[in-house]
Amino acid sequence: MQLPLTQPGADAPPQALSATPLLQLAQVSIDYPQGEHWVRATHQISLSVMQGDRFVLLGASGCGKSTLLKAIGGFVTPSEGSITLAGRRITQPGPDRAVVFQEFDQLPPWKTVRENVLFPLLAARRCGRKEAAERAELYLAKVGLAKFADAYPHQLSGGMKQRVAIARALAMQPELLLMDEPFAALDALTRRRMQDELLALWDEFRFTLVFVTHAIEEALVVGNRIAILSPHPGRLRAEIDSERFGFNNAGSADFQATTQRIHGLLFETPRAAAGVEA
Amino acid sequence: MQLPLTQPGADAPPQALSATPLLQLAQVSIDYPQGEHWVRATHQISLSVMQGDRFVLLGASGCGKSTLLKAIGGFVTPSEGSITLAGRRITQPGPDRAVVFQEFDQLPPWKTVRENVLFPLLAARRCGRKEAAERAELYLAKVGLAKFADAYPHQLSGGMKQRVAIARALAMQPELLLMDEPFAALDALTRRRMQDELLALWDEFRFTLVFVTHAIEEALVVGNRIAILSPHPGRLRAEIDSERFGFNNAGSADFQATTQRIHGLLFETPRAAAGVEA
Amino acid sequence: MNAAVLTVRPDVEYVLSAAPPALKPRALPAWRRVLQHDGVRRGIVLVVLAAVWEALARWQANDLLLPTFVQTLRAFVEGVASGELLVKTGISLSVLLKSYVIGIAAAFVLTSLAAATRVGRDLLSTLTAMFNPLPAIALLPVALLWFGLGQGSLMFVLVHSVLWPLALATHAGFQAVPETLRMAGRNYGLRGLRYVLQILVPAALPAILSGLKISWAFAWRTLIAAELVFGASSGKGGLGWYIFQNRNELYTDRVFAGLAMVVVIGLVVEALVFRTLERLTVQRWGMQRTNQ
Amino acid sequence: MNAAVLTVRPDVEYVLSAAPPALKPRALPAWRRVLQHDGVRRGIVLVVLAAVWEALARWQANDLLLPTFVQTLRAFVEGVASGELLVKTGISLSVLLKSYVIGIAAAFVLTSLAAATRVGRDLLSTLTAMFNPLPAIALLPVALLWFGLGQGSLMFVLVHSVLWPLALATHAGFQAVPETLRMAGRNYGLRGLRYVLQILVPAALPAILSGLKISWAFAWRTLIAAELVFGASSGKGGLGWYIFQNRNELYTDRVFAGLAMVVVIGLVVEALVFRTLERLTVQRWGMQRTNQ
Amino acid sequence: EGTIRIAQQFGIAYLLLDVVQDQKLIEKHAKAQGLGEVEVEWNQISGATAMNEALLSGSLDVVSAGVPPMLTLWDRTKGKQNVKAISALGSLPNYLITNNPKVKTLKDFSDKDRIAVPAAGTGFQSRTLQIETAKQFGKDDFKRFDTISVSLPHPDATAALIAGGSEINSHFSSAPFYYQAMDANKAVHKVLSSYDILGGPATFNVLYTTQKFHDENPKTYKAFYAALKEAEQYVKADKTRAAQLFIRAQKSKLPLDFVRKIIEDPENDFTIVPFRTAVYADELFKLGVLKNKAASWKDYFFDEAFAQGS
Ligand SMILES: Nc1ncnc2c1ncn2[C@@H]1O[C@H](COP(=O)(O)OP(=O)(O)OP(=O)(O)O)[C@@H](O)[C@H]1O
Ligand SMILES: Nc1ncnc2c1ncn2[C@@H]1O[C@H](COP(=O)(O)OP(=O)(O)OP(=O)(O)O)[C@@H](O)[C@H]1O
Ligand SMILES: [Mg+2]
Ligand SMILES: [Mg+2]
Fold it and tell me: Is E274 left (phi over 0), alpha (psi -120 to 50) or beta?
């Protein structure tokens, strides 16, 4: 990992960290053209993602999660508001933000599985050929595709393609990792393994993660902070702290209660009285 | 529904049904070319799907679920064994088997959402223009996309695309419905609603469903019979009856136990002693 | 895991603000809005090209070989005013359009066959590899044998120049249609011609459009070249004949006026036909990017 | 729900049989294996075409216009044996290849510009719409002015015939590259030339290949036609010159032998270069179907 | 019988055909032959090759080109279609001109010079040059100037000569191009005339057809021949009128004075009588271009032309 990890030191108060969020969204709205007029995909969303956060975007289908992630990736320009990364406005994509897209066709079909993992490493000049090859081997093994290193993407199943994309992003060891429903196509066990790997890597490198999912349990287990979005257009509904949840307490009463609470926030029509103006 | 529903009548013993399965797979193996040699995707699988079954194919990522479904759809030719539908060998695809594919790019991009639902109805001459339009309206509403009827596929989110594909298949009201992880891209609530709709439609029309999923709970709730596949190559590991499970008893001890049992069948290396030769 | 506990932040719930009901296009500065318009930007390109031409021609100062833009413009205006240029263009255009349509139909038949059967595929790739490189003059004797002098032969060589490139481009487009879309189409029970028309053609439309553009251009090239040789039957020569005749009399400005007519038609067809087609189809369907 | 309870079937567990360790290609009957081979099937097509030609020519019985296949073959063999045909072909091929490479480079520059900037896009579409329909003879005077007689001018018109169709096809291919792939490439920090080379070109390869085929064919067409006009300075005429001379002297069998050489080269290049390229790239990558 | 399809090439050398067409002389003489309404189709085709192909394919009945291409076709079709000439279209000289002041005679041409001809090695101009070369440099060296010959259409070559400065500094040119070149650029001068080579006024272009047409359409053929004769008289009678007719018929934009100057030039004789065609027949046979030896010019002309000529 390029950035030295900022540890909350003894001389700095814990709030010092929160004073300078790594990623800041300020009143971000994003519109898409549709026929003659514009359609609003996300509406005035403000979020702060701290260094080392595992930040989850949770919301119903079509609520603008992917759109928001693409804006952070620099692929989509907001029509209002600003997105800043380490104080600088995001204007274009870059290898400092590795992205796992939701679509299966994100792997260049002309590269084998191994080359696909190597590609961004070499393109972004992250590391030398030799180290890149080692990393590729390592991360392909982590996602269970070592045997398929020489296959081409069109010879893989849907879930296998997504795992290659995950390996590719992880091998980049980026400061900021953006993942759009990376585990949606995976079975229970593979998914669990991937979640484990992701958290272990986070433990090792303490990168910042922005993670899109539609599964509440996954949000609680993977994230330490969850932003809940409401659909049409995507607006921020709530932010929940989930630092305390992990695999070990996935069955606990607190876990169940939070799941229920998030379910309510996601799917019940909000009562104005319950809202707290931010 | 075209086929009159065969009800187990008073004069026919219940076993009469099982004597003539609607869909029969006999020792089906499927190979893909990979470089110079062939790779076996599914190996000697035999299955019987009865009229009105909600048959689930469950297995880890890459275990050949999609391959098997494509073979039933008539898109892939087995290299060994035979697949028969109502006694006739499947040689090519046809509108009697509506398919929801796993990929997001299954919607012709040159048709709006509504036209996409209408397309197979008119192409397969299922019904007249007027009835087709009504059905399209109805099923788009069922998947919650009535508002997006005039949008083009590229203007939809991943989950929305999958829902269009679901509406398209349901509107066909086919005798045999093949669905490949149709709900993987959907959030908890939307997924639950879709499952409900699917079961309600099954209740109404009693079509036969072959449903691929990687989620054990979904398998139990949606299916009445579950085939569990082991990977590399895909082989049949077990068949489980799940008629007794539904949303109402999703928390029951039996449900939990069966979940655990399936989990074991899926992911533990089989002990030869435990196996029962079929 | 979770060793370094981060600052604890409280849970927050927000009141959902209503979204703006209707969104207008963002206002652009006037000059950008003008530049937004295709025609304006291309107009600028054209003006620059004309200026370069004028400068080059003046510098060469050899108007028998390369007349200036202004001279050409004058000859063009005169030709149009006298009606001569328009009549000749009309004659050429009518032959061209007929041949273009026949060529498209033939290409469609060939590629549909290729899409359906392996024999068709072998036939297509062998025939294109063989005939595509053959120049029109090579076909001339055969064309004369079969169609005699006049439109028949002209159309034969024009069809030859439309058919092969279009068939090649279309076939490449068909072959690149994604597997999932093909499966969807076949799942609907589409087969044969309906499959080609309802799945392959729209899915391969970007490739087909580029093939149409290429073969349109080559039809013009062939027409002008062939009219030089075939000349005029009963005084009914087209644009190629106009160019040939004026070339023979060393009226180079008129020669360039004739060529300018080809260029103008090319630009108009590109702007009115092909762009419109693209806007209404592939761009609208998200199958072709409009910007980078 | 679940009202009509179906027959209850017992749960079953199976012992996993080991998969066959290595799979051999399925055995095909001998005649199918032979037919499986591209060359064989295409050979059959060629034989049929030759037979049709022979029959047609005999029926027409006008060997000054349409010699028979056998006569042509004899002239071809004689031409090759005497070395004349080979020498001429060599001369033509060398000019052709040089121009082809230059044309490809120019098309690459133009389309890369178009991929990067809007001005580039305007320039590309305006220039192609303008220049693509212009016949080579129109460029002759200008070519003479700038490059004089000989190879320079010949290459100029050849580049003209390669550049525009290739640029059109490539640009269409670029524009059709799926959004997700583009985003992946830009996510790697690729920009400018590296983005074009590492993302757009491979992703648009099917379109580029069809453009290459088309422009290869058109380079031949133009070469043959242009050599007729430009002829040969100092006796170094190529294949077009050979055809032209023999045509003027009514040695039609030799004319057809020269054309046959073009066809043979077309078939060889298709089979050896383009097919191989396709097999090693787009087919291997699953971007182009091999069968229906 | 009753229809005739004729093709001419472009330019003043085909003036007689313009007169026939404009004055509807075939129709007139057909009536005199008792043929009634004849159908006459006029085409314009460029180049002898296309002419020959059109004739062989049966797309045309009568075509026109220089003497050498006609002889080649006669040679190749002898015993088959038996193509022969109908009549000449006029004796007009072709000039070998240059803007290189150093070149005064054929011997002065060097490797640096380039001679433009419409069809290098085979056309009227090249053949004429080859005959002279064989005379001056020996029979084996008759292709000596082919290596510095360039195939270029007359107008482009003329433009190059007038402009100067290009590699093409010489041109074997026919009317009206050498007039234009010598008018527009004083440095352009004559090196050689085809009349010098052939020994006097000689036929430039001829009309020719197949034996089949000749034999199966005797009346039409006669009417056509009579029309040509009358056209010759028409031009001889009033050259200004002929010039006007040319401009009208060809929709030419050339100035009247210029056209009249060409028609009035005593070197240019618009006659249907062939002159010195046998020089080509003999010389080209000697050079091996023709396989058949013509005993006299009557071998490759139809009988109707036998009254006069050489
Ligand atoms: N290219 C586009 N053009 C127009 N509208 C779009 C486009 N992409 C997305 N949208 C619209 O923006 C909204 C949000 O889409 P987005 O893809 O961000 O949803 P999402 O939260 O990722 O959903 P899912 O969970 O289904 O993937 C949707 O209503 C969609 O129709
Ligand atoms: N076109 C192909 N060419 C070669 N191999 C293929 C092809 N398609 C699938 N395979 C291989 O077949 C096996 C089964 O693939 P399949 O898509 O059926 O898996 P799946 O069970 O649907 O997985 P997932 O849950 O990830 O979608 C995999 O090992 C895959 O690599
Ligand atoms: Mg999404
Ligand atoms: Mg699958």
Answer: beta
Q: Hey, is A209 helix, strand or coil?
A: strand
**Cβ contact A28:A57 at 8 Å:** no
DSSP string, C16-68: PPPPPSSBPPPP--HHHHHHHSHHHHHHHHHHHHHHHHHHHHHHHT-TTTS--
Cβ pair B60:A160 closer than 8 A: no
pLDDT at C253 over 70: yes
Please report how many Cα atoms fall inside a 13 Å half-sphere around the Cα of residue B6, on the Cβ side. Answer: 19
Chain C residues near residue D45 by CB distance under 8 angstroms: 122-123, 126
Q: Give me the count of residues in chain D.
A: 292
Would the CB of B30 count as within 6 Å of ligand 2?
no
What is the third-level CATH fold of D87-280?
Answer: MetI-like fold (1.10.3720)
Radius of gyration of chain D (CA): 26
The answer to whether residue E256 neighbours chain C at the CB level (below 8 Å) is no
- Closest to B57 measured CA to CA, from B73, B39, B80, B75: B73
CATH classification of A21-96+176-278 is 3.40.50.300, yes or no?
Answer: yes
Number of CB atoms found within 10 A of residue E304's CB: 17
Q: What is the pLDDT of residue E303?
A: 83
Instruction: Inspect the interface and report whether the beta carbons of B235 and D17 lie closer than 8 Å.
Output: yes
Domain positions in chain D: 87-280
Residues in D closer than 8 angstroms to A112, CB to CB, are none
Residue among C267, C262, C259 at smallest CA distance from C69: C259
Q: CB distance from E258 to chain C under 8 Å?
A: no
Q: Sorting pLDDT into bands at 50, 70 and 90, what band is B16? A: very low
Q: Where are the domains of chain B?
A: 21-96+176-278, 106-173
Interface of D with C in 64-83 (CB under 8 A): 65-66
For ligand 3, the distance from its centroid to the CA atom of residue A38, given in whole angstroms, is 19
D272 CB neighbour count, 10 Å cutoff: 10
ipTM of the complex: 0.89
Q: For residue B204, give both structure tokens.
A: 């109404």
- Cα-to-chain-centroid distance, residue D199: 22
Residue B82 pairs in a beta bridge with B26
| The pLDDT of residue A8 | 38
DSSP C196: I
Please tell me the distance from the alpha carbon of residue E143 to that of residue E147, in angstroms, as a whole number. Answer: 7
Considering every ligand atom shown, identify the ligand nearest to the alpha carbon of residue D284 and give its number: 2
